[in-house]
Amino acid sequence: MARVICEQSFETPLSDEQYAADSARADRCLELHGAKWVRSYFSTDRKRMICEFEAPDAEALRSSYRSAGLKFDRVWTAEVFTAAKTS
């Protein structure tokens, strides 16, 4: 599975209710395309969001969003690096 990032932007701030409704619409489509949500990040003005997924590839996530009727700016695969622990 690849780590896939989806970037979205909104004209008005995204409410918790709209986020929940969009997520509910996407759940079945994500499952059908073999994608799994990992986490989401919102800008402080809630007009931008980045979501992280595990998916077969970027096109699987694009297809999921299109099937759910959700708009996105960009979808791309990523490499994950973590901070090294120091003693």
Structure, described:
It is a single chain. The longest helix is centred in the N-terminal third of the chain and has 17 residues. The protein has a single domain, classed as Alpha-Beta Plaits (2-Layer Sandwich). The mean pLDDT is 95. The protein is 32% helix and 32% strand. A four-stranded antiparallel beta sheet has the order 2-3-1-4, covered by helices on one side. It contains two helices and four strands. It is α+β, with helices and mostly antiparallel strands and 87 residues long.
What does this entry show, briefly?
With 87 residues, the chain is α+β, with helices and mostly antiparallel strands. The chain contains two helices and four strands.
What descriptive keywords fit this protein?
single chain; alpha+beta; Alpha-Beta Plaits; 32% strand
**C-alpha Rg, in Å?**
14 Å
Under CATH, the topology is which? Answer: Alpha-Beta Plaits
- Specify the number of helices: 2
Number of domains: 1
Pattern of helices and strands: EHEEHE
Strand order of the largest sheet: 2-3-1-4
Largest sheet: 4 strands, antiparallel
Show the helix and strand layout.
Elements: E1 2-9, H1 16-32, E2 36-42, E3 48-55, H2 58-68, E4 74-78
Antiparallel strand pairs: 1-3, 1-4, 2-3
Helix pairs in contact: 1-2
